[in-house]
Amino acid sequence: MGCDLLRVAMAEHFLLRALTEEPLPAVVDAPGIAHTTKEPRQTRPLVTRFGPIGVMRLAYRHKGTKNLYPADAVANLPPEKYSHGLREIAAKAAVQGSFDTTVQAIADQTGQQVGKRQVEQLVRRAAQDVDRFYPDATRPKVTTDQALILSVDGKGVVMRTKDLRPSTAAKQAKADHKLQSRLSPGEKSHRKRMAEVGAVYGIDPVVRIPSDILHAKPVDPTWTKKSGPKAVNQWLVASVADSMGDVIYQVLEEAERRDPQHEHPWVALVDGNHAQLSYLQEEASARGIDLQVFLDFIHVLEYLWKAAWCFFPTGDPEAETWVLEHGLEVLQGKASQVAEAIDRQATAKELTPSQRKAVDQCAHYFLVNRQYLQYPQALEKGWPIATGIIEGACRHLMKDRFDIIGARWGLDGAEALLKLRSVWSNGDWDAYWTYHLEQEQRRVHFSQYAAEISAA
Fold first, then answer.
1. How far is the C-alpha of 143 from the C-alpha of 135, rounded, in Å?
2. Do 131 and 100 touch, CB atoms closer than 8 A?
3. CA spacing 20 to 30 A to 322: which of 38, 103, 334, 385?
């Protein structure tokens, strides 16, 4: 009953606007054609959050051209029948749950029945200004003693075949699986398109030592582990349509908006993907930035654990001690020495090539990436050495929403939802929505009129 009362009030509001609309001698469209023929009481439908209403207004006509409705521009009415308020409800619900639950959420909040396809269209329209929003938005500056942290990672999204990248689609077409009902070990379905995720945030440095990262049971009962630096003003970007280079460009753009004079340390945390490293370094170099790059220490430990099982039986506590000792050496800047030591150990034990495969992979990883394993510098400066922020972002932005069982995503829908989830996670929803409505008014309405009408 309350919604119906508000629906009637809104309908009466638009009726009053129509009755008091002052006719103009003429309205000039963007090409400069004057619309002089006026036709009153032209009605269009509008489905609001309170229910459907009709909106009357004056139509300005000229033969052979599209009608103009200045009152629509003043009220910023959407081109489709669903109001901006209903569009926002759909977008908010979609970033937090499935499209099915979004349909139900709209029904619960408004009593309106909006189809699933219409919800997907509303979400795509809601996301169309995200790319322009952040370059125009005011961003938080890095405070005096802070360091600026950049991180990038990727996560696969199961796509419809037509929306896979060409290389993946070609592999899918050529795939000849041994079994019909499931994949055999080592086989890939080639159903995913890689989405790139980027993060920018500030940290107040916290100086640490290797034992704050890895430590055995302390002898001194009063000893406590020092916590690492905390992320502040975190910003996320993600795209399944853009390339890795495009997303890294956006990450660097956001960082420069925060530190345009490059007065603070810039630190990049990655997992060892060489394409990511290459793009980061090229982009930083082009901007004249001294970018300090470090590999995620958790990935380093994973390599050590895999190598440990070449020397110890599964579950042997000695493996943990072995990983701890070598991990501390890596934290002390001795990655090359660790690579040589485990290689010698495998040789001394006369392990076969298959038995020492994980050892060789670990040693190779350390040697190839040794310039990015300078952890003593990072710890002394108080910088983080793990990619927990970007790993968490991949889980939150991607896995929690896109890994719904049985889901197959279209490119446009997945991209729109990713952008909106990024805005929501960044805490910028209200600012973005205000910006989006302003852009809609310019795009849908003011663009139809001559400059003097747009300015008025």
1. 20
2. no
3. 385
Dist CA 389 CA 150 (whole Å): 10
Question: Cβ of 415: how many Cβ atoms within 10 Å?
Answer: 22
- Compute CA 292 distance to the chain's CA centroid, rounded to the nearest angstrom: 23
Residue type, 159: M
Beta strands 266-270; 147-158: pairing state: parallel
Which H helix or E strand runs over 193? strand 192-203
Secondary element (H or E) of residue 260: none
Q: Report the relative pairing of strands 51-61 and 147-158 from DSSP bridges.
A: unpaired
Burial 1-27 (b: 16+ CB within 10 A, else e): eeeeeebeebbeebeeebeeeeeeeeb
Distance CA 325, CA 301 (A): 11
- pLDDT tens string 381-417: 999 999 999 999 888 888 888 887 777 889 999 999 9
Residue 88, CA distances (Å) to 133, 184, 414, 432, 441 in order: 16, 45, 17, 11, 15
Q: Is the pTM of this model over 0.90?
A: no
Cβ pair 68, 32 in contact under 8 A: no
Would you state the pLDDT for residue 140?
81
Which residues touch 55 (CB under 8 Å, ≥6 apart)?
14, 18, 43, 44, 45, 46, 72, 75, 77
Residue 446 · residue 73 · CB < 8 Å = yes
pLDDT of 302-335, one tens digit each?
999 999 999 999 889 999 999 999 999 999 999 9
What's the pLDDT score for residue 374?
95
One DSSP character per residue, 10-77 reads HHHHHHHHHHTPPPPS-EEBTTS-EE-EEEEEEEEEEEETTEEEEEEEEEEE-TTS--B-HHHHHHT-
Tell me if 129 sits within 8 A of 68, measured CB to CB.
Answer: no
Say what the alpha-carbon torsion angle 100, 106, 107, 111 is, to the nearest 10 degrees.
-170
Residue 166 vs residue 32, higher pLDDT: 32
Closest Cα partner for 265 from 204, 199, 330, 333? 204
DSSP string, 139-170: -PPPPTT-EEEEEEEEEEEEB-GGGS-HHHHH
**Beta pairing class for 51-61 and 37-48:** antiparallel
